[in-house]
Amino acid sequence: MLGVWMVYPAVYTIIRSFFGQHGFLGTWVGIDNYKTLFTTSTLTTAIKNNAIWVAVVPAVVTAVGLVFAVLTERVRWAVAFKTAVFLPMAISAFATGVTWRIMYQQDPNLGAINALGKVVSGAVSPAGVLQSALPSTPGLQTQGGGMVLKTATQPGGTALLGVTGIPPDQVPHSAVQAVTPAAKPGDVVGTVWRDFKPGGGKPGVVEKQELGLPGVTVELRDASGKVVKSTKTKSDGSFDFTGVKAGTYHAAIGASTFAKPFAGYAWLGPNLIVPSLLIAYIWIWAGFAMVVIGAGLSAMPRDVLEAARTDGASEWQVFRRVTVPLLAPVLSVVFVTMIINVLKVFDIVYALAPESEYAKANVIALAMYFTAFQGGGNFGVGSAIAVFLFLLVIPVLALNIRRFKREA
Amino acid sequence: MAAAAEAIVVPAPHDTAAAKALRFAARTPVNIVLVALGLAWLVPTIGLFITSILPASALASKGWWQIFSHPSVATWSNYDALFHNSGLITALKTTAYIAVGNTLLVVILGAMAGYAFAWLDFPGRDWLFIGVIGLLVVPLQMALIPMFKLYDTFGLFDTWEGIALFHVAFGLPFAIFLLRNFFVGLPKDILESARIDGANEIVIFLRLILPLGLPAIASLAIFQFLWTWNDLLVALTFGQNTTPITVWIAGQLREFGTSIDIIAPASFISLVIPLCVFLAFQRYFVQGLLAGSVK
Predict the structure, then answer these.
(1) A295 inside 8 A of chain B by CB
(2) What are the φ/ψ torsions at residue A227 (nearest 5 degrees)?
(3) SS3 (DSSP) at A98
(4) A176 with A210: CB under 8 angstroms?
(5) CA of B99: how far to CAs of A5, A90, B108, B267, in Å?
(6) What is the spatial distance between Cα B259 and Cα A32, in angstroms, rounded to a whole number?
(7) What angle do CA A197, A199, A200 make, to 5 degrees?
(8) Who is most buried in A67, A105, A245, B80, counting CB within 10 A?
């Protein structure tokens, strides 16, 4: 059985990798298939990506597993936590791919991760009151994201900042009829309003049915462009800078008023697809590392740890100098296992990456599948990729045999 | 005398409320961190489940967490529709045939071979076993192309038997490795005395090895079942119309946005069975993992 399904195919694949595209053997092409392997861009991307996987995943999974294993020793509900983290191990990498595809959706209204990003970014830099607006007169100019009134004002002056191009649904709910406040000595007053009414109206003039824009950040800038005062408009769009020193100023609407809301990262787009895959994969395997390392931890001689603590070592020192060195064999088992897993990774890439991003997300196993099957049909290069994958895991094979011989 | 003895008695450390509170305070950060992490690990699966019980129209503009503000949008109609979908039912059946069939074969063959490697003397035994260990790491990609052709020739292509047999082959090295190592550790004198009593190898295998080896066999069975239930690559390669559930869902992925009311519930169905198996036999699963973290 093993002979038919494993030994024969392995030998055949090795031989087949030196032959052309079609037929039982095809024509002898020497090492051309291997040359193709290292020169075709989709295949080199796959190899590069797999290198990233190998560099990141085993180390992170081992570290996360170690931290989880150590932390769970300190709580009473360790079993519940372990079950939660271990759960993804039972689920197929394919279903995980689907699960994370839902999590990763770009629209913050749909994808949970971007929704979280929206909450965070909303707290750090909130979206502006107006997301789209244009100056209503040439007197108001856009500048660095904000809008500046060309005509200078002085204390006692009035600044009228009319804007248009605001869709009705984006007008703040509390907006009421715009009002031009009366000028006050020593103050700069003015209005920010939607300079548009049914029928159009006259640009630059506050008219009936035109709404004031509340919550807009208005800035008073001095001759050098420095912001000396800043305030927010009221529901009728009016604002009032009190106690302005003599001089000439420009009134402006601050850039933050027009800040676009968080649009979400394209987790499944060409730039982030590889990190997104890594995160989902680490999510699957952290439980494995945690359980194996946890078993090693519970088999550890307690008295050694106690002795170190009695000698006055801090928890960190105990962890760093006693726990980790004693766990080294277990950690290396996890690490090596993860290297093999990562080299053969296939399902999650197939399920999580949208088809349009396969080229960017490619890994060796995926490249092998698409080269040999699914319209690829090139058994020669496909075999070469398989052999290449095999060569990569051979050192691990040697390691396993050595371990067995030592145990025997 | 009695008084002297009493004097040196150290008072038992008393758990005062203050000490308890202090210990709890010291643990609180760890607890909070672990709760957050535990949630992070659960949320995606919960999200998948909630997505699966929402109609596609509700999912077009809002994420699955809308259920917390509008619980009434939840519906079983997605599942209802799926259970009337003959494609899915066939796929589930195929998955079950493949997973159960190959697991049975792997357990039977693995146990016999494991016993042979552990307790029978035959020439070249150790070398053969090293060969089996060697096969442990052979990536199954090595066999895809040749078996594709062989299956084509022998009519195994696009049959569940073909897919199951492939799994058996690639499951056996691990099975033999795991069971041989477990059987070797069984007490030798029990076997010896059974042999002296005149029991033949078949009786020893059935009456002694199988019952004693049950924990390891259970681990193996669960492992193999989950591994093959969850497989995508093998079925994708050797199936065309005979497809297990993973491949069936994969076929819908192209229309991810519009078919979400099929993809999400089908994915959830596909993971419910492994999840139950896992939760029911978690102990054996962990044992298997620890015994053979080599695969």
Answers:
(1) yes
(2) -80, 115
(3) helix
(4) no
(5) 18, 14, 14, 17
(6) 43
(7) 60
(8) A105
Residues 200-239 of A with CB under 8 A from B: none
Contact A373, B148 (CB under 8 A): yes
Residue the block writes with tokens 């080269």: A371
ipTM of the complex: 0.81
Report yes or no: B250 and B232 within 8 Å, Cβ to Cβ: yes
CA distance A18 to A21: 10
CA A232 → CA A9, A43, A257, distances in Å?
75, 57, 10
Asked if A339 and A396 count as a contact pair (C-beta separation under 8 A), the reply is yes
Neighbouring CB atoms inside 10 A of A84's CB total 19
User: What residues in B contact A339, CB-CB < 8 Å?
Assistant: none
The pLDDT tens digits along chain A (408 residues) read 555 556 666 666 666 666 656 555 566 666 777 777 777 778 888 899 999 999 999 999 999 999 999 888 888 888 888 888 888 888 888 888 888 888 888 777 788 888 887 777 777 766 677 777 778 778 788 777 778 888 888 888 888 888 887 777 777 778 888 888 888 888 888 888 888 777 777 787 888 888 888 888 888 888 787 888 888 888 888 888 888 888 888 888 887 777 777 777 778 878 888 889 999 999 999 988 998 898 888 888 888 888 888 888 888 888 888 888 888 888 988 888 888 889 989 989 988 888 888 888 899 999 888 888 876 777 888 888 888 888 888 887 677 667 766 665
Burial of residue A159 (number of CB atoms within 10 Å: 0-12, 13-18, 19+): buried
In the block, tokens 């039912």 appear at B89
CB of A82 within 8 Å of a chain B CB? The answer is no
Q: Is A15 on the interface with B (CB under 8 A)?
A: no
Q: Indicate the DSSP class of residue A237.
A: S
* Nearest Cα residue to B185 out of B293, B291, B294, B295: B291
Q: Within its chain, how far is the Cα of A288 from the centroid?
A: 24
Residue whose structure tokens are 């291997």 = A34
